[in-house]
Amino acid sequence: MTHTRPPPIRNLMPAPHIKICGLTTPAAIDAALAARADYIGLVSFPRSPRHLSAADAAALAARAKGRAKIVGLFVDPADSLLSELVAAAKLDVIQLHGEEPPARVAAVRAAFGLPVWKALPVATKQDVERAQAFTGAADLVLFDAKAPKGAAMPGGLGLVFDWTLLAAHKGPLPWGLAGGLSPANVTEAVRATKAPLVDVSSGVESAPGMKDAALIAEFCKAAREA
Ligand SMILES: O=C(O)c1ccccc1N[C@@H]1O[C@H](COP(=O)(O)O)[C@@H](O)[C@H]1O
């Protein structure tokens, strides 16, 4: 009698959701869609090389609408800027990447009726534990490397933090991993942290603000196969 072996159990974890952030051209949008990114990020922060006007954000968002969720990235924005971008780009998600405290995050969520992701800068275990404070305020926390003092931007710098800080993370909020991810390290990052969502910007660029279609495809493939 012959026995058929069951297929080997390879990976019981679902593949992480993928956000490609800081897209600035139609070609970059097409590359992210072709790679089946779940979220595309549009940056509204004038100091960033990925900054978009409301009109440019609207045009790029229209290209992706219905095929990926549109995340607007802001740093300590005024309500007027949020209103302008939410309306122009028909955002699905608001990402706050500045120093917004829980009360401000909750207020943005209530005012705009959209899911709000709060980025948290991480260098220590205490930074990870700060996520608790956003329970009931944010829909998701995004752990990103802490920018050095005096940096021009709080993110988008290609900096990695110590992923072992997240190894035992069991916060009440959904969460994601950002900070210096790339096609070369995303497999290890997902295995080390079991991140349900990965977010990349500079790691899929050929120069600041210039997305590379091949790197986007490689990143998405590596994240899914992790
Ligand atoms: O991408 C930017 O220009 C940016 C500007 C201001 C705040 C955050 C920004 N990007 C976000 O930072 C993280 C990590 O980026 P990277 O992959 O290390 O380049 C990610 O969430 C970006 O969306």
From TrEMBL:
GO terms for biological process: L-tryptophan biosynthetic process. Signal peptide: none annotated. Keywords: Amino-acid biosynthesis, Aromatic amino acid biosynthesis, Isomerase, Tryptophan biosynthesis. It catalyses: N-(5-phospho-beta-D-ribosyl)anthranilate = 1-(2-carboxyphenylamino)-1-deoxy-D-ribulose 5-phosphate. InterPro entries: Aldolase_TIM (IPR013785), PRAI_dom (IPR001240), RibuloseP-bd_barrel (IPR011060), TrpF_fam (IPR044643). Residues 18-221 form the N-(5'phosphoribosyl) anthranilate isomerase (PRAI) domain. Pathway: Amino-acid biosynthesis; L-tryptophan biosynthesis; L-tryptophan from chorismate: step 3/5. GO terms for molecular function: phosphoribosylanthranilate isomerase activity. Its EC number is 5.3.1.24. Belongs to the TrpF family. This is N-(5'-phosphoribosyl)anthranilate isomerase. The lineage of its organism: Bacteria, Pseudomonadati, Pseudomonadota, Alphaproteobacteria, Sphingomonadales.
